[in-house]
Amino acid sequence: MTKDSKKAENGAEKINWDLSDLYKSSDDPQLQKDKKEVLAAADEFAKKYKGKIDGLSANEFRELLQEYEAIQDKGGKIGSFAYLQWSTDTGNSAFGKLVQESNELSSELSQKLVFFDVEWLKVDNTKAEKLINDPKLSFYSHYLDSSRRYKKHVLEEQQEQIMSAKSVTGRSAWVRFFDETLGAAEFQIDGESLTEQEALSKLHEGDQKIRKKAHAALTKTFNDLSRTLTFIFNTVLADKSTNDRFRNYKSWVSSRNLANETDDKTVEALVKAVTSNYDLVQRYYKLKTDLLGLDEMKDYDRYAPIIQNEETITWDEAEEMVLDAYTKFHPEMGKITKKFFEKNWIDAAIKPGKRGGAYSASTVPSVHPYVFMNFDGRIRDVQTLAHELGHGVHQYLSRQQGPLQAGTPLTTAETASVFGEMLVFQKLLKEIDDPKEKLALITGKIDDTIATVFRQISMNRFEDAIHTARREEG
């Protein structure tokens, strides 16, 4: 946003996270020390276990996994700090440098450790099953069992090392370039230069003229960047197609479904259930067109509030809403959530160079999660905050599962976040007496639900079409 902007502040402008629980800065001596130590630990791990996985006893296997977890935790800590720091200022060359260094470190670690995955998946199924069911390895049973699903898709050790080495200049590099490109992009509205997040936020304004201008600004900048963005898009498509072919995945979505611990048929059933009910969205948009008093709904009208003058919600008010809803559900949930606010585990300020969107980063079990968002003082931002803190609480509690099992597939991760979001929605709904305000809240929730369910499936259908065309037509 430009310096002469008259936009009212909402209190989130100073909400920046404190990453010192990870590292104090890019120059933190502990960070440099950990880089050396984690590589040395990986070398020692390989020296101790390479070529011996098939003959390990349950006790020895448990010791291996504990050592493996320690390496993963330390390496993950470095990567988490680098990414979180960079995502708040994607134009900072020093931050970008550390991201690149951490990606290369991650690749180097993977190359040193990949023998374990290869050897474990070559263990005879009967012997593997015996280890998985051994009481001494009960804590790790889910990890050991779920990892066996990749048996058909893991290559030989040297091939895996090459794939890991090339990954640094593959998809992840292009995704970073995409984020940096949009982080630096400017969107002009009435002479004011806005970030992508600020421009997108104006699509939720009550004034249709403002929404139309925001839509035009977004379209113009994206069109100006279309050559770059299209090249990134096509390169990522080709990269995935190549990887899937080498790993023997039968469709473009198989690897994602495997990571989500589900199967193609289940996902196809979900897609069919949603696409067969597109008429529900069409009926809703017809109703919303009437509620907005429009003759025709344009693309930029989809997220318009039905109350024209939506009040700005301050950061303090948003904090109170979320904490109250979470605490009333369960005191422990409220207590954990409060840590995020009191200990500065949230970054909410909108600023130039910051990437768009929102996420909760689990980081590593030895530390704690951090929540990232762009708070613009609207009720939907409160819902976003509640959503990400749902993830945050889940991730905080999952730390006890250790580095190999604390993560959760998307299929269950979104349960916690949407649940947290609904707690706040239900709280607000109970507290509103004015029928018009209540209707506005409900329509806003329907808008969000359409985005969560129908919009996501629509994007999935686009992905299916483009990936299939890439494979079949080139």
Report what the structure shows.
The chain is 64% helix and 3% strand. It has helices at residues 29-49, 58-87, 93-122, 125-132, 141-147, 157-167, 171-184, 196-201, 208-224, 226-246, 254-259, 264-275, 278-292, 315-329, 331-342, 379-398, 410-431, 435-472; strands at residues 187-189, 192-194, 346-347, 359-361, 370-372. It has a 3-stranded mixed β-sheet, with helices on one face. The protein is globular and about 75 Å long. The chain starts with 28 loop residues before the first helix and ends with a helix.
Topology:
Elements lengths: L28 H21 L8 H30 L5 H30 L2 H8 L8 H7 L9 H11 L3 H14 L2 E3 L2 E3 L1 H6 L6 H17 L1 H21 L7 H6 L4 H12 L2 H15 L22 H15 L1 H12 L3 E2 L11 E3 L8 E3 L6 H20 L11 H22 L3 H38 L2
Parallel strand pairs: 3-5
Antiparallel strand pairs: 1-2, 4-5
Helix pairs in contact: 1-2, 1-3, 2-3, 3-6, 7-10, 14-15, 14-16, 14-17, 15-16, 16-17
Distinctive features:
two-stranded antiparallel ribbon, 474 residues, three-stranded mixed beta sheet, 18 helices, disordered N terminus
